[in-house]
Amino acid sequence: MKADTKSIGNRLKSLREYSGLTKKDFGTLFRSKESTVYQWENGCCVPRLAKLINIATYFGISLDCILCGRVVNDHILESHLCGLGELPFSSATSRIISRYNTLSARDRERLIGYLDALSREHDVT
Fold first, then answer.
1. Nearest to 43, CA basis, from 84, 80, 1, 10
2. Can you give the CATH number for the domain in which 22 is found?
3. CA neighbor of 96 nearest in space, from 19, 4, 11
4. Is 106 within a domain?
5. How far, in Å, CA of 125 to CA of 107, rounded?
6. Geometric angle at alpha carbon 90, from 63 and 70, rounded to 5°
7. CA-to-CA distance for 37 and 23, rounded, in angstroms?
8. pLDDT tier for residue 117 given thresholds of 50, 70 and 90
9. Domain of 83?
10. In a domain? residue 55
11. Residue-level pLDDT at 59
């Protein structure tokens, strides 16, 4: 069965836009050139399997979602990519989530502590 490269490209573009990344940033994140990301998004070619697995893992979605447009996990992003739902997030929220996902576990805990402190400060005023 031949992969529908245009549909895969559209889903990859949606993932990139969801995360607030430029083609260059997306390429850097997944060790590819900006021109390669352009080719993926326009259906000229498809990333190798290992790279697709990395992309799916990074976004917490299934490979089936990227390749076939099937929702496997009960995941808002998968539903959106497969045309079944809208994302409840603004682009700013998407960028925050994307950057949070790149942090180490230690830095995530530090960020949560900082946000908790800000919330307590806000509650007092």
1. 10
2. 1.10.260.40
3. 19
4. no
5. 27
6. 20
7. 6
8. confident
9. 5-88
10. yes
11. 83
Q: What is the CA radius of gyration of the chain?
A: 16
Number of structural domains found in the chain: 1
Residue 33 maps to a domain: yes
Residue 119 structure tokens: 């919330």
Residue 51 covered by a domain: yes
- Here the tokens at position 67 are 């390749």
DSSP string, the chain: ----HHHHHHHHHHHHHHTT--HHHHHHHTT--HHHHHHHHTTS----HHHHHHHHHHHT--HHHHHH----SS-HHHHHHTTS------HHHHHHHHHHHHS-HHHHHHHHHHHHHHHHHHHH-
* Cβ contact 52:67 at 8 Å: yes
pTM listed for this prediction: 0.64
